[in-house]
Structures are given as structure tokens and as C-alpha cells.
Amino acid sequence: MRTPSVRPFLTTRGLVPENQESPVHYIIPETTEPRFHFRRNHFAYPSLSPLSYWLQVEGHVENPLWFSLQDLLALPAVTVPALLECAGNKRGLFEPVVYGEQWEKGAISQGYWTGVPLKTLLEKAVVKEGAAEVVTIGMDRGKRPGTEGSVSFARSLPLEKATHEDTIIAYAYNDRSIPFKMGYPLRLIVPGWYAMASVKWLRQIRVSEESFTGPYQTEDYVCYPDKDSDEGAFPVTEIKLDSSILQPMQRAILPSGSHTIHGIAWSSTGVIARIYVSTDGGTSWSEAELDPEQVGYHWTRWSMEWLDVQPGNYTILSKAVDASGAAQPETAFWNRNGYGYNAVDRVEVKVEE
Amino acid sequence: MRTPSVRPFLTTRGLVPENQESPVHYIIPETTEPRFHFRRNHFAYPSLSPLSYWLQVEGHVENPLWFSLQDLLALPAVTVPALLECAGNKRGLFEPVVYGEQWEKGAISQGYWTGVPLKTLLEKAVVKEGAAEVVTIGMDRGKRPGTEGSVSFARSLPLEKATHEDTIIAYAYNDRSIPFKMGYPLRLIVPGWYAMASVKWLRQIRVSEESFTGPYQTEDYVCYPDKDSDEGAFPVTEIKLDSSILQPMQRAILPSGSHTIHGIAWSSTGVIARIYVSTDGGTSWSEAELDPEQVGYHWTRWSMEWLDVQPGNYTILSKAVDASGAAQPETAFWNRNGYGYNAVDRVEVKVEE
């Protein structure tokens, strides 16, 4: 007798460069296995030669330094449970529609990242008076429409966020070396910010007195609220409070009877106070059961028993509330490039006899 | 130096039972590799014991027979290039929305199927006068909402289609044993009909004087044009004329300049006469280049060079015309369960500087 394995896969949104979505609807463990971790790239994968690997710390510092992997492994390590969410997660849900990879609910993954606080390296390099930002540069590089020549993927953080104790130079994910596609050998991890900040294949850290103006800082990952002009533009930074209904699936057909509705909720701090669920399109709401153990910046699972459901069409909604009492909005803040969608989640199902 | 492989995956629509979509946008070869073949199941996979495998032919025949795999391999074989398309392919595009697996463009795959014409077996069994249908029964079985007890996946064909020379009991796909998930060891292949007719894990063939009334014949795979009543219902049979734009992808952002638009077109006979493509939402149309070699029931590739494209938003449409001169409709024929979507295909893209 054969027992065929049935497993989910990444959902392919593009291959050149590789952009694939995590099958979040089918993942039960707290942490995302690397094979199911979403992949979001701006370029082809870089070619690495790890034997000659050095991480450079330079710029507005007293002591420019080069760290080998051995140097980093010798420093005191911390482990941070962190969720990474692409700023374009759920882009496909915006109305009016926006262009770019049409991510659904799976541009989000999480696990335990281990490494050295960026602050430790900056202290060793001794940041000079007047420093404002820390620029982090990856080894991925290539052509970008609208930019002359070729460009590295690079991002900056304000000094305050760069020196936050949970902002780390990670060398391990779930207790193993970071898998290549996830940023081996070193990845900046910026918990609480959208994942464009968590630069993969890190090669250089530059302390700066000025605002960084790379295209992934000042053109992409910027919210443009106006469809034609750049008026009112502001940068994408912290992860917004959000929730997803993972089961049932959008437009599923269910038998009548009892069902469990379940999903996840997350925020920039990881703290979720309450989840409300509606099964009648928002006329009435019930508080769902939240997993009491909230781990670091990870999402929190929630569930609600939906009992004795009769045939008909239903609209299920989920709405998260954070520690400050703020709730997810009814409608997402529209912006031209489709970042930060976080409206109350919505799934329509049909219940048959 | 590492060279990471970048490959597409099936898109998961459900795991219990397994329903996964082919990554058609990224597949170039004429035939679909088994790992990229779409999977559509009504039940968990059956447990097989191939050593004791017999295919039974019975019912309204003079000589009920049991065929072993060896018996079938000893009979004259034919190879048929056949496309399989789920009747629910593109269901997610219907408006108003319909419920069930939200297939996009990938519930379609193709390859070379080898086996024995069903007609050969029916001739050996000697069909009696008065026979009307041939019922084919798979080994997959389970509970179905709305049906008492458990039920096998079973379908019937009118005698005329069952005895068509291209309707075969296949034992090979692309010159190898049929992969388990695709119906090993024997699968009925009914070219030109939607794939519910191509019963997997075939175990029994029953000739009948009466119309078969199994739930997958008379409840599912029936077009209900009315949203509330069963008025005007008719069965799903032949594949409809259709085309898909495979690249660019829906809501892609493209650089200005020249691009190739490419896709596939198919029909119940495999013959495509012409493809028209519009890049201005249907105001003007150009004839695309069709692959001159049209193979059996396989889809035909087409492409069009889109030259010197300036920044702006564009709606690309594709419309296939078959040998009779019939064209794809502007709007798909709406039906409650969402079968046979075949409207002119539509992709919206944004071209930037």
C-alpha cells in the first residue's frame, strides 16, 4: 500500500527575480520551515564566496571595522522571535487595484533569529556625534527600472531603531545557519518593521550623518496616497496591526454543522489584546479565543467555534485590537504602490445542506 | 559559488482532498511534467495493491471480462496527445462570484497518454443491443455532503463517445507509467471533454441501458444557469474554446520598451484557427502568431511582439477563433457552480518609465 504525501507549496508570483508566497493557510507550527518561508527579491540571487566573507562597519565612526563570521560568533548572542512581513502583503486586495506582485495573505513568515545586536557592533566602531542613520547594504545587486547603472539593495534605519536591542545581525534561523535564500550568511533583522528593512546577504554597514537616498529608500517602499502625484508621500516603516482568517478559505463551500474559524493576528510589537470575529458581515461580533502565549514579535493564533451553521451565504470578518485599544480599520489606507494593507479581514463562504 | 535553483511550484487550493494548480505561467515545454500537473480530487487518495489489480468490464455485455495489466499491455496501443482541463478552471474569474475551489488559469495540463482504446475492450466484451452509456468507476471513494453513506468517483459517457477511437484506457503518461497521483495504474482519458470524465485509478467499466445517476454525473458537473433553482440545468461535457495570456502576468509593472505577449489557446478538438490580441482593452485587435504545429488535443502556443510601449496603464485581451469561425465570448456563461469559464482573457498591466 502506498501512502502519498500531500503537502502545500509556495505560491509562485514571479521567478525572475524569485518571488514566492508562503502557504500560510496550511501551516500549523509556530515557526515557518525555510521551504515554506516567503521569498521576495529585487534581483537574481547574489553569488557568494563565504570563505572570504567580511562584514564592514564604516562611515561616521571612530574605528571602522571588518568583522569575520568568527568574530561575530564570539560576541554575546541574542535570539529574537520575529515575524517578517513583506510591505506588499495582501496587495492583491486593494481597491482600486494597484500594480506589482499580487500578494495574497502569504507574504509573511516567522521564526527564531539568533545573532548579535547591531548596537554591539556600533559600540565597537564608536559612532561619532552627529550620526543620524545606519545604512545596511546587501550583496544582491542589479538593474532597476528608473535607476542608472546597477544598484545594490540597501536600506537605512534611524539611529534609534538601529540601536534597539532587538535589531540584530542574525546568523541563525531556528537554530541553524540562515538558509541561502533567506540571507546567508548574515541578515539584518529589524523586528516590528516591514521586511524590506531586514536586509539579506548583509555586506556593509555605514553610519551616516545624512538621510540615505537609495531608490529602495526614497522611491520604493514609500506610500504615495495620490494616484498621480507624489504629494503626501511618507516612508513605509512599522508593521501595521493586522489579522488573517486562515480557515475557512475564501469562497469555500462548507457542509452545514459546526466549524472552527481560525487565523492569526500580529502587530509591530507582537502584542494583540483581542480579536473580534463576525459571521454576518459585521452586524454582530464575538470575541475569539486568543492563544494566551504571545511570543516576542510572532503572530498570535486565534480561533472561534462556529456552531450549528445552517445553509446560506456568510461573510466572516476578523478584527484585531492591540494593547493601546486601536483596532484594524474597515478599509485599508490606499496608496499607489500597495503597501501596508491591513483592513479587517474578510472571507465569504457558502454553507450547503 | 552557489547557484540556487529557482523553480515554480503547484499553487495549493486545498489539501484535504488535494487540489493544486499547475504553474502554467512558467512552463515552457509542450508537455507538463508530473510534478507540475494540476491535481483535482474529490477524496483522499485510494490505497492500491497493484499486484491484485484487475479491470472489470461488465453490465449490458455478452462476455463480462476481467483484464489484468498484462492483458492490456498485450493489446494494440495508441498514443494520444491530450490536454486535461478541470471544468472549474478559471472559476475565480466569474462575476458574480461563485463558490468552490478558486482556480485561476492553471487547472490545465497536457501530455502524451498511451493505452488501449476503450472500444477494444467493449468489442471483446460484446456490447448488447440497447446499451446507451458506459459507466467508469475509480478506486477513489469517500463521503460526499448531500449523499448518504460513501460513494465512488464514477462518471458515464454516451456509447458514441466511449467508442471514439481517441477515448483510451491509459497506462502511460509521457512514455512512463502514470504517476500515482495522476491515476496509476489505469486512467480513462477522454480527449476533448473536461477532465472529470477522465476517471483516475480506474477499477470498473459498466455498460448500461440507462442513464447513470451518480452524484458526480447529475449533481456536480452540471451547469445551473439560475442562482436559486435547477431550471435549465445541463451537463458539463466538451471543453470550450479558450485562451490564456500567460505573460505578462495580471497587474504586472513593466518597463517601457518592447515586450512579448504570449499564451496558449485550446478547444475540444485541439484546432485553433486564429488568435487576436488587443493591448487597448478591445478597441483594436491584431492577429498574433500561432505555433503552426498543432499537436492532437494539445493547446497551441501563440505570441505577439508588443513594440515600443510607452508608460501608462494597458488592458491586454486575447481571443481565440476555432476552425468553424466561432470566437471566445466577451463574457463567460455564468452558472452557479462555476464551470466552463472561457471569456476573452484579460490582463491589466502598468508600464513605467
From TrEMBL, chains A, B:
GO terms for biological process: sulfur compound metabolic process. Its cofactor is Mo-molybdopterin. Residues 42-215 form the Oxidoreductase molybdopterin-binding domain. InterPro entries: Ig_E-set, MoCF_OxRdtse_dimer, Mopterin_OxRdtase_euk, OxRdtase_Mopterin-bd_dom, OxRdtase_Mopterin-bd_sf. SUPFAM superfamilies: E set domains, Oxidoreductase molybdopterin-binding domain. GO terms for molecular function: heme binding; molybdenum ion binding; molybdopterin cofactor binding; sulfite oxidase activity. Keywords: Metal-binding, Molybdenum, Oxidoreductase. It comes from the Bacteria. Residues 236-351 form the Moybdenum cofactor oxidoreductase dimerisation domain. Pfam families: Mo-co_dimer (PF03404), Oxidored_molyb (PF00174). This is Sulfite oxidase. It comes from Alteribacter lacisalsi.
